[in-house]
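Notebook p. 47: complex prediction with LTPLIIQW.
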Amino acid sequence: MAVKGLGQPDQKYNGSGLKVGIVHARWNRQVIDALVKGAIDKMVRLGVKEEDIFVETVPGSFELPYGAKKLSEKHQFDVVIPIGVLIKGSTMHFEYISDATTQALMRLQDSINIPVIFGLLTCLTEEQALARAGLDEAKSMHNHGEDWGAAAVEMASKF
Ligand SMILES: Nc1c(NC[C@H](O)[C@H](O)[C@H](O)CO)[nH]c(=O)[nH]c1=O
Ligand SMILES: CC(=O)[C@@H](O)COP(=O)(O)O
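Predicted complex, structure tokens below:
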């Protein structure tokens, strides 16, 4: 049995009536699209209505904190899921964006006072990114977007 993973929630949460914002980057689009779909499908299975899920895009992951902030100021979301895929290149670009974006998303929860789900993959290779979106040939891992959808419904319902 796998040790890693979300684990069973304390109860089955019902997402009906929740309003969810998804803001996703457009870099590494193939992986992003699968993650966004995974998150939406999971939330719909947990009762969230598709019309209550609002999706917006930003250019890259660095833009996620500002995009999520502005969007959540415009709409009455119960939870927001920023989704981005950072893949290490040959410079320090990856390290700076990974750290800055993570810190900003963490702080964002305090300023907008709704849960912000951490939908950011920080991968050293393309293969790692594909696997975490359930897209590698071996299907070695599940689509992490599903975890983010489940976390969103739980966090928005529980608190
Ligand atoms: N290299 C990746 C980026 N880089 C772009 C930045 O996030 C940003 O959009 C740009 O510097 C303009 O401010 N973004 C990703 O989401 N993923 C990457 O792998
Ligand atoms: C978007 C950039 O600035 C780019 O040159 C970063 O390069 P790398 O992804 O190889 O680190």
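Notes: The mean pLDDT is 96. The chain has one domain: 20-158.
Next step: compare against the earlier run before touching the bench.
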